[in-house]
């Protein structure tokens, strides 16, 4: 059962106001293994009444509690204790990811020990405080301060539940906010484990809560006027809806949404580096990555070589049980996602693209939501598989003539989250990077680093997470004009 597999003390309870309590409803959420299609656990299903309780607790903790009023060093000490508690639970975090999503355990267990780093990073940052003295044009002093935005709702997706949650919770707590975490119903375990870590670290009651709930009642939470900010990672359709709701009531919003990122292979590219740079983010997490290099733009002169190299690499990917040591790629997360990916594969064929490799369920796996890594060629940028986010291990090779044409194709998208250029010329790489309308861009690969701002242009979201920009996103700016400075700033 779930509580054995991930060592949870109260798997069927909600964490609200510092206490583990039962839902006011009687339903629960079953956790389904994507590799076996069987239920492996169950968690509570929050109701609107539970959401009211969580918001009231967070509001009281922010308005009347100690957390927002602690100094930067005082909050930093607590964040470091959270990181220490998370380190003790690395195995639980890794197992939860593999159990719920199908991430190979060899990969999840290598990643989990670093997740506490989000909290230590922001702990170090807030040691410096949030006050800056400036000189106004009319004389005197202006103290520009950053103050916590207030009650934050953090809505996270199922593909990388702990990383996306930590990227919100760590800076929000560092800023002095109170936080209500709303994990995806497919992957609730990481948020519950994190709640145990936060409680063990001595975070005051009401500062952090977890609501495991279906999507149908989550809309109620984002509409609450007592919620000052919503930070959302997920689909573009859901993000645009959330942004419209929250903005309409004057709330703050950060969204990290979908992508259809282009890998631009220039005519001098090293083919081995192309394969090395594209494969991990095309088949890692079974392709369920918003920043995947799903459009592969290749000059006509290299089309055959790049196609052959990527197809060969895909055929070597070992697909199977996430907990088997030899597995490179696990299943898709749900039955619906499985059907969705195969629907796009069929759409690609119908519109004239050619499947070079993959496109089917692995022959040796008759159970679980598995799909072969799939590569299309002879595609155009107007095809559905080049326009819409598939969220599966499907790459589309699009040939081009000139470098100008490649840049135009890359920018011809509703999205602008990530991308990369493959070339041996640093100057060409930087010149291309500056012309692509996307929030993150790599040279001969993709890098995502929580100490660097991450986010998108266009329909890929609003705002940034990570780096100092991620911390600032959970603050409001205030200018205080003074004839004389207070003693601690002189």
Automatic annotation (TrEMBL):
EC assignment: 1.2.1.3
Catalytic reaction equation(s): an aldehyde + NAD(+) + H2O = a carboxylate + NADH + 2 H(+)
GO molecular function: aldehyde dehydrogenase (NAD+) activity
Pfam families referenced in this protein's UniProt entry, alphabetically: Aldedh
Aldehyde dehydrogenase domain mapped to chain residues: 20-480
Residue ranges of the TM segments: none
Keyword Nucleotide-binding: no
UniProt-listed SUPFAM superfamilies: ALDH-like
Annotated CDD domains: ALDH_AldA-Rv0768 (cd07139)
Top-level EC class: oxidoreductase
Record-linked PROSITE patterns: ALDEHYDE_DEHYDR_CYS (PS00070)
Keyword annotations: Oxidoreductase
Source superkingdom: Bacteria
Family to which this protein belongs: Belongs to the aldehyde dehydrogenase family.
Protein name stated in the entry: aldehyde dehydrogenase (NAD(+))
High-level lineage: Bacteria, Pseudomonadati, Pseudomonadota, Alphaproteobacteria, Sphingomonadales
């Amino acid at each position: 059962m779930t509580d054995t597999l991930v060592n949870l003390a109260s798997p069927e309870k909600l964490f609200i106001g510092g206490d583990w309590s039962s839902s006011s409803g009687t339903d629960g959420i079953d956790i389904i293994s994507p590799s076996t299609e069987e239920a492996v656990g169950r968690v509570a299903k929050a109701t609107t009444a539970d959401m009211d309780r969580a918001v009231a607790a967070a509001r009281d903790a922010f308005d009347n509690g100690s957390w927002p009023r602690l100094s930067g060093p005082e909050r930093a000490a607590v964040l470091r204790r959270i990181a220490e508690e998370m380190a003790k639970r690395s195995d639980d975090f890794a197992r939860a990811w593999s159990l719920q999503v199908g991430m190979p355990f060899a990969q999840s267990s290598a990643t989990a020990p670093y997740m506490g780093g989000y909290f230590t990073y922001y702990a170090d940052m807030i040691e410096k405080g949030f006050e800056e003295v400036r000189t106004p044009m009319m004389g005197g002093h202006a103290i520009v301060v950053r103050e916590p935005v207030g009650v934050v709702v953090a809505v996270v997706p199922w593909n990388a539940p702990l990383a996306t949650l930590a990227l919100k919770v760590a800076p929000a707590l560092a800023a002095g906010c109170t936080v209500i975490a709303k994990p995806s119903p497919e992957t609730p375990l990481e948020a519950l484990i994190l709640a145990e870590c936060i409680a063990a670290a001595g975070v005051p009651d009401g500062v952090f809560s977890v609501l495991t709930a279906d999507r149908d009642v989550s809309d109620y939470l984002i509409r609450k006027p007592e919620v000052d900010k919503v930070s959302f990672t997920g689909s573009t359709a859901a993000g645009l809806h959330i942004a419209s709701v929250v903005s309409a009531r004057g709330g703050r919003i950060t969204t990290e949404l979908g992508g259809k990122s282009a890998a631009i292979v220039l005519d001098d590219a090293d083919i081995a580096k192309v394969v090395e740079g594209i494969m991990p983010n095309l088949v890692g997490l079974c392709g369920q990555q918003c920043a995947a290099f799903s459009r592969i733009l290749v000059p006509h002169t290299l089309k055959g070589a790049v196609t052959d190299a990527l197809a060969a690499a895909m055929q070597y990917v070992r697909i199977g049980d996430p907990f088997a040591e030899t597995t490179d790629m696990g299943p898709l997360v749900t039955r619906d996602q499985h059907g969705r990916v195969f629907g796009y594969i069929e759409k690609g064929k119908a519109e004239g693209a050619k499947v070079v490799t993959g496109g089917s369920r692995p022959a040796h796996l008759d159970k679980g939501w598995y799909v072969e890594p799939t590569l299309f060629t002879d595609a155009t940028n107007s095809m559905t598989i080049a326009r819409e986010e598939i969220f599966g291990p499907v790459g589309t090779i699009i040939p081009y003539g000139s470098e100008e044409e490649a840049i135009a194709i890359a920018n011809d998208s509703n999205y602008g989250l990530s991308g990369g250029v493959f070339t041996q010329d640093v100057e060409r790489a930087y010149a291309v990077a500056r012309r692509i309308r996307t929030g993150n861009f790599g040279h001969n690969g993709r890098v995502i680093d929580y100490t660097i701002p991450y986010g998108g242009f266009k329909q890929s979201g609003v705002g940034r997470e990570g780096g100092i920009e991620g911390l600032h996103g959970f603050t409001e700016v205030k200018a205080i004009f003074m004839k004389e400075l207070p003693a601690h700033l002189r």
